[in-house]
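Can't paste images in this forum, so I'm doing it all in text. The chain is below; anyone willing to post the predicted structure tokens underneath?
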Amino acid sequence: MLRLSLGRSTAAVLVFASALALATAHARPVAAQNWKEAPVYGTIELAAGFLPDPVSRSLQAGGGDTNAIPAVGCAGHINAAAPDYRLSYTAGSGPLYIYARSRSDVTLLVHDPAGEWHCSDDWQGTDPMISFETPLDGSYAVWVGTYAAGALQEASLHFSEIDPSIDADELASAFAEFGEGMPDISAMPVYETLQLSSGFLSDPVVRELHAGGADPNPVEGDGCRGFINLGAPDFDLNYSAGSMPLYIYARSDADLTLVVNDAHGAWHCSDDVDGTHPVIRLDGPPSGNYNIWVGTYQAGELQPATLYVSERAPR
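Text version of the structure:
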């Protein structure tokens, strides 16, 4: 594991020991957050020293319930029925940082393994961050809320052991050997975030897009070159897995390639599996977030293409 001696800035975090006491502190009834329920998007398992760092996931922030933690400046709206994500974490000797980013004003709520609540808002602009200087082993239930009531908002959630307050140029230089020039898995997708659970109907799920980009594909694979947009995935997939395999494939009149970063952070690349069409089959796929790029084998203009997500082999 690479450790950096870089300064840390601790986020303003309010900790409360009793959810019951917190809920009764409100002047009006609110729905208490149910940290025991299965998470909406999935569980992420990490151990100290994980790479890549940060681990990033996309989600829809907010919900119809008022945050029941009465922290000053840490109001907001969430889905109280279940957390968005659960982090199962094996701690080491270093800190743990959980933060969220969005074009909207978002808040962050975490229930830690000791049963304490933590809430954050406006750590960096309108983005929230919670830091654990001596994190515990165990389960962290995580909600990303919106400060204002209303529609769900695109956001990204990040888990890191490196202080995200560090200057971006300094951090990029220090970690150049761990991913310089790789596709950006933390960016919001160009087209859409798909929400699917195993057994989904209308299989395959089909989406139209324009494939390709100006950047050479850096993900290795047998004959898997091509051109993509490194700045953001075309689609994200939040998938609740079952016992079925998962197929991600694309078709077009043009020669395509396909790049996927799976829920464990592993990269997959495909080219010319079905004629000039790429197909990625994942056996025993984990639940969580998948980042998807559809590229073109040749440099040039974007090409009309179709993306398919299925639990059945392409026909």
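Confidence is low (pLDDT under 50) at residues 1-30, 167-179. The first strand starts at residue 14 and ends at 16.
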